[in-house]
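Continuing the batch. This is chain 6 of the set; chains 1 through 5 are on the previous pages. Same settings as before, nothing changed between runs. Recording input and output for traceability.
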Amino acid sequence: MAKNLSPEEMRMRLGERIKTIRIAKGYSNYENFAFDKGIPRAQFGRYEQGQDLRFTSLVKLVQAFDMTLEEFFSEGFD
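Output for chain 6:
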């Protein structure tokens, strides 16, 4: 992981990673993904925008992507 990034930059990368995975899973629309996975649409939209999210919410997202934390963080943070 990049060590010199600000917390804001890291949140933006996190949001981009969430969006990239959602699209890779075949969901062009974030609202459809959120609905299918039982995640509030507005909340999921904020995650993709790089807004703060709790660790427990991140774990739920990673599980919704059917991934491990290691897989999730394996790309987009170097």
